[in-house]
Every structure is written in structure tokens, then in C-alpha cells.
TrEMBL record:
<dbReference type="GO" id="GO:0005829">
    <property type="term" value="C:cytosol"/>
</dbReference>
<feature type="domain" description="Glycerol-3-phosphate dehydrogenase NAD-dependent C-terminal">
    <location>
        <begin position="181"/>
        <end position="319"/>
    </location>
</feature>
<feature type="binding site">
    <location>
        <position position="15"/>
    </location>
    <ligand>
        <name>NADPH</name>
    </ligand>
</feature>
<dbReference type="InterPro" id="IPR011128">
    <property type="entry name" value="G3P_DH_NAD-dep_N"/>
</dbReference>
<comment type="function">
    <text>Catalyzes the reduction of the glycolytic intermediate dihydroxyacetone phosphate (DHAP) to sn-glycerol 3-phosphate (G3P), the key precursor for phospholipid synthesis.</text>
</comment>
<dbReference type="GO" id="GO:0005975">
    <property type="term" value="P:carbohydrate metabolic process"/>
</dbReference>
<feature type="binding site">
    <location>
        <position position="256"/>
    </location>
    <ligand>
        <name>sn-glycerol 3-phosphate</name>
    </ligand>
</feature>
<feature type="binding site">
    <location>
        <position position="109"/>
    </location>
    <ligand>
        <name>sn-glycerol 3-phosphate</name>
    </ligand>
</feature>
<keyword id="KW-0594">Phospholipid biosynthesis</keyword>
<dbReference type="InterPro" id="IPR006168">
    <property type="entry name" value="G3P_DH_NAD-dep"/>
</dbReference>
<dbReference type="GO" id="GO:0046168">
    <property type="term" value="P:glycerol-3-phosphate catabolic process"/>
</dbReference>
<dbReference type="Pfam" id="PF07479">
    <property type="entry name" value="NAD_Gly3P_dh_C"/>
</dbReference>
<feature type="active site" description="Proton acceptor">
    <location>
        <position position="192"/>
    </location>
</feature>
<feature type="binding site">
    <location>
        <position position="255"/>
    </location>
    <ligand>
        <name>sn-glycerol 3-phosphate</name>
    </ligand>
</feature>
<dbReference type="GO" id="GO:0006650">
    <property type="term" value="P:glycerophospholipid metabolic process"/>
</dbReference>
<keyword id="KW-0560">Oxidoreductase</keyword>
<keyword id="KW-0963">Cytoplasm</keyword>
Amino acid sequence: MAGIRRIAVIGGGAWGTALALVAARAGRDVALWARDAATVDAINGARENPRFLPGITFDRGLVATTELETAMRGADAVLLVTPAQTTREVAGRIAPFCLPGAPVILAAKGIERGSGLLLSDVLREALPEAVPAALSGPSFAADVARKLPTAVTIAAGDETVADALSAALASPSFRPYASGDLIGVQVGGALKNVLAIACGAVEGRGWGASARAALTARGFVELSRLGAALGARPETLTGLSGLGDLVLTCSSEQSRNFAFGIALGKAGTAPMAQGGKLAEGVFSAQVAVDIGKRHGVELPISGAVAAVLGGSLSLDDALEALMTRPLKRES
Ligand SMILES: NC(=O)C1=CN([C@@H]2O[C@H](COP(=O)(O)OP(=O)(O)OC[C@H]3O[C@@H](n4cnc5c(N)ncnc54)[C@H](OP(=O)(O)O)[C@@H]3O)[C@@H](O)[C@H]2O)C=CC1
Ligand SMILES: O=C(CO)COP(=O)(O)O
């Protein structure tokens, strides 16, 4: 496909702002849309997003706006960076301004709750003229905003589209790998959040580093099985957007999902743990288990997370249930 000159970034939170910086560093003409006027003013004026990236002054200027039509004008590609559960609504809002055939890169990590659809399928329903793509991998927004070295996967059904998007966003501090596996990239991104909550809970409850490593490894088995059942490629699941992101978020307090899990672990039950920050795994846990059931894939760890969050199981009972499952051969 032709070179990508102008990119609209939809969503002025931590990741939207960081990805707008990525696109600007790569030499693209960038417009960032946020619905919060104070955030837009701070980005345009002080080169900061104090609500979502406190303490970081950007290395370059960005153009932000609260006007969706202005942000979308002439965009050859769109980065959609609002929470997963808002994808349908926001895709519908940008639809009137989206150039037909423009790639829309999904940067959220989750599964739509009501429908059980991956976000690329949500996009196909809400904005059928767009070409769905996804960007995912081990990448904290604050690290990326600070220009720390990061590598991610960018996937699209047509690999030449993924190649073009990778070329449009690459810079010496941001290295995308192109992929044709749109499903695998999305499954990894959604599942790792659920598993990071489990690992955080282990940390918060004081169950030790050995338990956390075991959970990460067995969690990877869940992620791989679900991915395989949905048609993901093995190299995607072991790649940046699968194992890479799982390892990052299951081991760092910088992860909001892991931090949510720690709070959950300290409280022992779900309702007291909400901290106000976005933890996408909360919304993906049950729907992932439901998708697994439909495909004959058991997800015991994700199921335990869903049950604890749903209030039907305490953390201590969840651990006992996991530890006393029938013994089996490792696979
Ligand atoms: N932060 C990170 O390190 C990374 C995040 N991601 C993923 O990116 C997605 C977004 O995360 P992140 O940017 O960190 O989240 P934040 O909580 O930092 O920001 C969310 C942004 O989305 C906006 N928003 C929320 N609901 C709507 C809506 N209905 N319509 C329009 N805008 C809306 C918020 O606006 P308002 O301020 O007005 O509420 C806010 O600007 C998540 O799926 C996350 O998993 C992926 C990789 C890294
Ligand atoms: O996806 C992320 C890093 O790759 C960010 O993780 P959290 O949403 O848990 O902060």
C-alpha cells in the first residue's frame, strides 16, 4: 500500500499520547483527539499529559484537538486507543470521517464483553470500510513516552498493510515487527491482562515468587491453547504480543493489571480492590472463559480470576481449587 503520511490518534490517555509521540518521532503528521479539553490544552501548551503521564515532558510538540472531524481530516491511518469496551462506540463516532480503506490500528487490549468478539470483529461491524490492524506487545506508555527502547508487533490480515504500518511508526526507539496474525496478537493482549491480575494477586497475598512463576508459565499454556483454538499462529503466541507482554505485565508493578491484582491480593476479595485506574483484565476475564468453553478450551487461571472478581470465590479458595485440580502430565 502507498506510504502513510498523516495519522489520527483517537484517545488522549496514556497509550494514545505515547503512540502519538511514536508517530511524530517516525516523521508522520499526527493529530491526537481527546475528549477532555484540559488534556488537549496541556498537550498543546506545556507538552505534557499530567492526568495520564505525570512527570513527563514530551521531547516534541503534538497537535491535539477535541474536534473529532479535525483530527480525522485526511488521515491515511488511524490509531484507535480508547479502552477496549469503548471500541464499538468510538469506531462508530469516527466512521463518518474515516477514509475508505484506511487502516484502523486497534491498540486496546481486550475482548468485547457483550458479544465475545475480538476488537477486529467489532471494528468490522462498526466501521466496515476500514482495514483492521492491531498493535500490541510489551510496552508501557510511560516508557514509550520517555523514548525508552520498545519493540511491538503490528498485525493486519494483509501482511503488506502490516509492513506499511510498521514502516510508518518505526524509529530508533520504537521497533515494530509486522505480522499477518491479527487473531493471535489480540488474544495475547487480552489474556495477558487477566493473567497479570492473577500474578499480582499472588504477589499481594504473599504467596511468593515461585508461585508467580508457576502461574505465569501455566497462564501461558492457557493463552496458547485459547489462541490456537481461535486460529492464532504459534510464533505470535511466543512472540512480543504473547509471551513478551505476559512476562512484562506479570512481573512489573508498572502494570495496572498487576497492580490491581496486588490490591486484590491484599484485600483477599474483589470489591475492595478497585483503584480507579484502567485494568482491562477485569473486563476480559469472564468473556475469555466463555469463549474458551465454546471452543472446548479450559482456562482454570482465568476462570479463577473471573470467579474472584465476580465474588463467587475468595482468593484463598481459588488457590486451593487450582492446587488440587486432578494431577496431569505437563502439556
Ligand atoms: N498504558 C499502557 O501502558 C498501555 C495501554 N494499552 C491499552 O490501551 C488502551 C487504552 O489504555 P490507556 O490509554 O493506558 O488508558 P487511560 O486510562 O490512560 O486513557 C483512556 C483514554 O480513553 C478515553 N476514553 C475512555 N472512554 C472513552 C469513550 N467512551 N470515548 C472516548 N474516549 C474515551 C479517556 O478519556 P477521558 O480522559 O475523558 O476519560 C482517556 O483519554 C487499553 O486497552 C490498554 O490496555 C496498551 C499498551 C500499553
Ligand atoms: O499492556 C501494557 C504493557 O504492554 C500495559 O499494561 P497495563 O494495562 O496492565 O498497565
